[in-house]
Design a protein that fits this description.
The structure holds two protein chains of two kinds. Chain A has helices at 13-27, 34-60, 67-83, 89-111, 116-136, 138-141, 164-187, 189-199, 201-206, 211-237, 247-260, 266-283, 289-303, 307-315. Chain A is mostly helical. Chain A is globular. By secondary structure, chain B is of the alpha/beta class. In chain B, a hairpin with a 2-residue loop joins strand 9 (199-204) and strand 10. Classes of the chains: A mainly alpha, B alpha/beta. At the A-B interface, helix 8 and helix 9 of A face helix 2 and helix 3 of B. Bound molecules: adenosine-5'-triphosphate and magnesium ion (MG). Magnesium ion binds next to helix 1 of chain B. The site of adenosine-5'-triphosphate has 11 residues of chain B, from helix 1.
Chain lengths: 327, 236
């Protein structure tokens, strides 16, 4: 299934830096007041989430429609552990990531046997099953009330995370670490092989690659990273409800990836920023903001097939500077 | 030991029997051509040998090993490689990256460069494969199958749709393969077939109609009627 045209962003470090600078320019003004800071923190968390989905959509060619599952399950894990008295950030972080990764491996063994639109539908189905489970299993999840009152974590450091600026820096550190790690991943032999699967799975098999294993690895990695986002999210908002597991959330993350520019890592962060800022601006005037989201999406499909980032890169496209995998 | 042994393979698509109790064996180092009309089941035979699709019954041996239940990538690791009838490349990646992937992203990038140098495509290394000419893409199709130094190669109409000049380039590439490599080639162009093949297998409606040397096939009446009669003048 072809949702986007592919740009080989990962081959051109120069474009990566351009993208990062664009991103910083977009984000800086947000940091000026406490409202902006909170929005910026949210953008970075969703940026991590959107980047993780980009590994699947942009690099592996898997349009997964249950990415919110891994995000939400990890957030719930953190919330439930908090209710059990686990206050240590690093323990809950490890637990949240472990649970979503394990779930991805289990689900992946089933859903990765299908491809294209079938893959999209079966992931959607599993996502909604888990959404329904969170809704019903009141004793564990609080049902539709969710789990409120989760306080900021204890990092074992002298700074308190109750301070929004400290928490912002915590998120920023994780954001940059994720960006760096995923950038390394897509340039590693494993990351390149995953792009090969996107381009032609049958050719990869004929070349001796275990393509199922490659897809499973990408799926697990994406889930682990969205698990990280889930932990940060629940500590940021102090609250988790089934809505975070719903397909609308999964759809929103897909929009972030596609509007920003799939297959670019930085693009989906721009997508997250644009969507969250628009959502905040527009929803203070009208509750029809999904309508605007739809218009934005249509504009992107019509005028910027490579997303917002792809559009800007084309504008200041300099010399062609292709480099090979091995160079 | 045979390089390839196909024993009593049957393959159905819905009600359509594409391969019917087909058996075939190819000796190591042999150059075998498979010819037959459109829809005879040639590509399907390749797909079952490489593991891209599973036969309904029958067995497949590669270098004496029963691979019937092995997945495609496992078979490839035994030294089996193939080209596709319709170009099946990493179109959005550069030529060099295509070769790198075929080499399993080898630690020494020099190997891919040397390889392209050897085959005269080095100057195109940074071009995205989708931007290469069709003839060049056809060469890359062959290069991806070559680069891992396979022991058994299945080539599905490597010269389909290209000019005579380009076709000669490809024929020479195949002729230049080391003699110990076993090559099975599906080909409509009889000039290419007679240039390359030691033996020819004629496939029709999922069955083997005839098998023999080039000279024998040329003169066989039934073969002439079914195949050469219609496609003998000029390959499609
Ligand atoms: N995946 C499939 N699903 C259904 N039918 C198929 C499939 N693959 C092949 N067929 C049918 O099987 C028959 C044999 O196809 P195949 O591609 O093997 O023929 P071929 O000998 O390679 O022909 P050509 O010379 O045109 O390449 C055809 O009738 C084709 O329509
Ligand atoms: Mg065919």
């Amino acid at each position: 299934m072809k949702l986007t045209e592919k740009i080989d962003f990962y081959q051109k470090p120069r474009d990566f830096w351009r993208g990062l600078i664009t991103l910083i320019l977009i984000l800086t003004p947000l940091g000026i007041n406490s409202y902006g800071l909170s929005l910026l923190t949210q953008v970075l968390i969703f940026g991590i989430l959107a980047m993780s989905l980009d590994i699947l959509i942009g690099y592996t060619g898997l349009v997964s429609f249950n990415h919110a599952t891994f995000f939400g399950v990890s957030a719930y894990t953190t919330g439930i552990l908090f209710y059990c008295g686990w206050k240590n950030f690093w323990l809950t972080l490890g637990a949240g990531i472990a649970v979503s990764t394990a779930l991805a491996i289990l689900l992946g063994l089933v859903v990765l046997r299908s491809s294209g639109p079938y893959f999209l539908m079966i992931t959607l189905a599993f996502g909604q099953m888990i959404f329904a489970l969170a809704w019903r299993w009141r004793s564990l999840t609080g049902g539709d009330d969710g789990l409120p009152g989760i306080s900021r974590p204890d990092l074992g450091l002298p700074v308190s995370m109750e301070n929004n600026i400290s928490f912002y820096y915590l998120v920023l550190v994780f954001f940059l670490a994720t960006l760096f790690a995923l950038w390394k991943f897509v340039h590693s032999p494993l990351g390149m092989s995953v792009v090969g699967v996107r381009e032609s799975e049958s050719r990869m098999q004929a070349l001796g690659y275990n393509t199922f294993g490659l897809k499973l690895a990408a799926y697990a990695l994406a889930a682990a990273v969205s698990g990280l986002a889930g932990v940060l999210y629940v500590y940021f908002t102090g609250f988790i409800s089934p809505q975070e597991l719903n397909w609308t959330m999964s759809g929103l993350i897909i929009l972030m990836v596609i509007i920003g520019g799939a297959g670019t890592l930085v693009g989906p962060v721009i997508g997250a920023a644009v969507i969250l800022v628009l959502q905040n601006l527009i929803s203070s005037y009208t509750d029809r903001w999904p309508l605007f989201m739809g218009i934005l999406f249509i504009l992107c499909v019509m005028y910027a097939r490579n997303g917002i980032l792809g559009y800007f890169l084309k504008l200041f496209k300099g010399g062609k500077n292709h480099e090979g995998i091995g160079s | 030991m045979k390089a390839l042994e196909v024993k009593d393979i049957t393959k159905k698509y819905g009600g359509l029997k594409v391969l019917r109790h087909l058996s075939l064996s190819v000796a190591p180092g042999e150059r075998r051509a498979i010819i037959g009309p459109n829809g005879a089941g040639k590509t399907t035979l390749f797909n079952t040998i490489t593991g891209l699709s599973k036969p309904d019954s029958g067995k497949i041996y590669i270098f004496g090993k029963n691979v019937t239940r092995l997945s495609a990538y496992h078979r490839a690791r035994l030294g089996l490689s193939r080209t596709f009838q319709r170009n099946n490349l990493f179109f959005n990646l550069t030529l060099l990256d295509n070769i790198n992937l075929a080499l399993h992203v080898n630690r020494s990038p020099q190997k891919a460069r040397d390889f392209l140098q050897h085959w005269g495509l080095y100057h195109r290394k940074n071009v995205k494969v989708k931007e290469l000419s069709y003839g060049e893409q056809r060469q890359v199709e062959l290069l991806l199958a070559l680069v891992q130094s396979p022991r058994l190669m299945l080539l599905d109409e490597p010269t389909a749709g290209i000019s005579q000049g380009e076709s000669r380039v490809i024929t020479r590439m195949i002729q230049g393969l080391p003699r110990e490599v076993t090559v099975i080639i599906i080909e409509h162009d009889m000039e290419v077939v007679f240039n390359l093949a030691d033996r020819i297998t004629v496939l029709n409606r999922g069955q083997i109609l005839y098998e023999g040397t080039a000279a024998e096939v040329r003169t066989h009446p039934a073969v002439k009627e079914i195949y050469l009669g219609s496609a003998g003048e000029e390959g499609p």
